[in-house]
Amino acid sequence: MNTEGQQDWVDQSPDPQPQGAWDDPQVQAAVGAYIRSLPVDDEPADLLVCLDHHSDSTPCQGPVEYRFALSGTGRSFPRCDHHWAERLERQAGIEARYPQQQPADFDPTYAGESWDDDGW
Fold this sequence. Notes:
Layout: H1 25-37, E1 64-67, E2 77-80, H2 81-97
Antiparallel strand pairs: 1-2
C-alpha cells in the first residue's frame, strides 16, 4: 500500500526470457550471425532522387542530399549539387525582386498598397 491507502501496482507477468539467456555464447553467436547477414547500404543517399531530376535543361550532377529549406515551409527536399546551385540562384533572384525592406522608390499612394502588414 502507498501513503494514500491505494495498492501499488506490481508487475506479475512472467518474464518472457529466462534470466541470463543473453549471456549464453551460443545465443550471442546466433544473434551476431543474423545481424551480420543483414544487407548493409553504405551510401543511403543513393536511394534519394533529386527533386529536379526530370528537368529538361540539365542532368543531375553530384551527390543527392536533403538540402536546407529556403522557403517558409521549413521542408527540406533532396537535390543534387547542380540543381541545388540552380535553386540558390533562383532564390537570390526572388530575394532581389522581393526584398525584406521596401525599396527607395516604393510609394503606397500608387495603388493603395503597403509594404508590411501594419498598413492594413
